[in-house]
Design goal:
Elements: E1 3-11, E2 14-19, E3 24-29, H1 44-58, E4 66-73, H2 83-95, E5 100-103, H3 111-120
Parallel strand pairs: 1-4, 4-5
Antiparallel strand pairs: 1-2, 2-3
């Protein structure tokens, strides 16, 4: 397999990365936390370091040329995301090793829906 599709769910101080291709999920709760009382990500460097480790674990099997990531913030999104927050989540995924990142707000997605959203982006 030359590419991977990842579904990254973000909660306060917590990432869950699901590799859609081999159905593995990896979770990490950051301590100290990367969240802030007003934002899901208040410490970009710490969040990126945590996510980078998870993405490396999720893509470990086989030779991988590209990783497409759908980032789904699940908390602290009342009123929608600002452009700054959307860019933050894209940059987190790219900096963690994704070749392409899509940010999604809405209901949790099935694996098939994640793949469709990544193909449509």
């Amino acid at each position: 397999m030359f590419s991977r599709s990842l579904y990254i769910q973000v909660r306060e101080n917590h990432f869950e990365v699901r590799n859609i291709d081999d159905l593995r999920s990896i979770q990490h709760r950051a301590n100290p936390g990367f969240s802030h009382p007003r934002m899901l990500v208040g410490d970009f460097a710490l969040a990126q370091s945590c996510l980078k480790s998870l993405v490396a674990q999720a893509r470990c099997s086989g030779f991988v040329l590209s990783v497409a990531a759908l980032v789904h913030p699940l908390e602290k999104i009342e009123g929608g995301l600002t452009q700054v927050e959307e860019r933050l989540f894209e940059e987190l995924a790219i900096g963690a090793g994704a070749s392409r990142a899509v940010v999604w707000t809405g209901a949790p997605l099935s694996d098939a829906e994640v793949v469709a959203k990544l193909k449509g982006a």
